[in-house]
Design brief:
This protein is mainly alpha-helical and 71 residues long. It is built from 2 helices and 2 strands; from the N terminus they run H-H-E-E.
């Protein structure tokens, strides 16, 4: 059960990391439409913290936006 729980946690962390990277890549493309000279480096946009030996995506350096969703 412990191995299954760790495996599930790693799947969730990988999914969150991919979601964050896709958002950051879209923001990078929008910001650099005219000049595509700056390559997108995932290591500049994704950070992990380890707590009790388990990885977590670090959102502490992310800017919070309080935009209301229009439905």
């Amino acid at each position: 059960h412990v191995i299954g729980a760790v495996h599930c946690h790693l799947g969730i962390v990988c999914a969150e990391a991919m979601r964050l990277l896709s958002i950051k890549y879209q923001q990078h493309q929008m910001k650099n439409l005219q000049s595509s000279k700056q390559p997108f480096k995932p290591e500049d946009h994704l950070h992990f913290n380890f707590y009790l030996g388990l990885p977590y995506v670090d959102y502490s350096k992310e800017k919070q936006t309080n935009k209301a969703k229009i439905q």
